[in-house]
Amino acid sequence: MKPYRVPQLAKKYVEYDMIQQHTEMPTFPDSRTRLLFMFLNRNVQELHASEGELYALVTSLVQMGLDTHDMIDTLSGIRSPEEMRSRQLKVLAGDYFSSRFYQLLAMAGRITAISKLSEAVCEVNAGKMSLYGKMKHFQLDAAQYLCQMVRFKKELFLSLTSLVAEQDQDVWEQLLNEFALCDMLLEEWDKRLEPDKSRFGYMFWYVYGNGDRNEQAMLSEDGTDAKAWRMLVLKYKAEDALLDKLRTAVLNIQQVLSANQNTGDEEFERMLEPFLKLLNSPHPIVRES
User: Angle 238-259/226-235 helices, nearest 10 degrees?
Assistant: First the structure.
């Protein structure tokens, strides 16, 4: 199999000094991209080796574009020049990442792939509009949020399922769902202690759904106090709930791999590393906060 080098190829498109100096960028979707690359390269009868790499690269760039736009804050109020610059760069960077996917596929003459990915982008954006409406009116719970966010994480990659060998498609879809869930939960974990960043995330809806009326009223207001938020996280063991979801997803991946011995264990061990590292490490700072 051709070596996996998509993150290195993506660097020329996503790493710019101005962007890195003035704004925060999303994490590269490595596990889902690597998974797509692996399964496309197993379909040697239908795809040339370079095609799997191209499709994995452009899909990762589109995902980066969507994730960058998701990081644009929607809070009202006056912003500092630095905050405005950061916001503008996110808008421009997200558009740029998305435009590169069109260019790369057009240059390669892969018009069908452009159509598939474009349709998937439309599906994701329509789904997000519906989800944001429910968030705004607090008509959501943690399970619904989890389901929708996993859908958004896997939709682009799922759109290329027809390029995966037919005998691999069931396993591909199972693993994609679980890795998308793992990626989403890891992102939620990293922002869990900051009320502004974790607002309307999984732990927010988990706490909101378990809280009493006074706590729900506090959470429904913008600018929740950081200390109050952390107290609610501890009270309702929201971190444990998130880690339990992650543990179950990792176990599901391991069970799928155990049932399919020809999937390449070493690659999957590398893909599982960041999730196992979180599950196996203590979290004293969180407990003491």
Answer: 60
Which is nearest to 14 in space by CA: 35, 1, 40, 33?
33
> pLDDT tens digits, residue range 164-218?
999 999 999 999 999 999 999 999 999 898 888 888 999 999 999 999 999 999 9
Residues of the domain holding 232: 6-288
Query: Does residue 229 contact residue 191 with C-beta atoms inside 8 Å?
Result: no
Task: Provide the H-helix boundaries in 76-140.
Answer: 81-107, 111-136
In a domain, 183, yes or no: yes
Which residues are CB-neighbours of 10 under 8 A, at least 6 positions away?
28, 57, 60, 61, 64
Rounded to 10 degrees, the C-alpha dihedral 150/285/30/163 comes to -20
- How many domains are there within the chain? 1
Q: Hey, what are 215's tokens?
A: 């706590």
Contact 103, 16 (CB under 8 A): no
Q: Quick check: is 1 in a domain?
A: no
Cβ-Cβ contacts under 8 Å for 100 (sequence gap 6 or more): 13, 58, 61
* Alpha-carbon dihedral sign for residues 196, 82, 125, 174: negative
Q: Which amino acid is at 31?
A: S
Looking at residue 137, which CATH number applies to its domain? 1.10.600.10
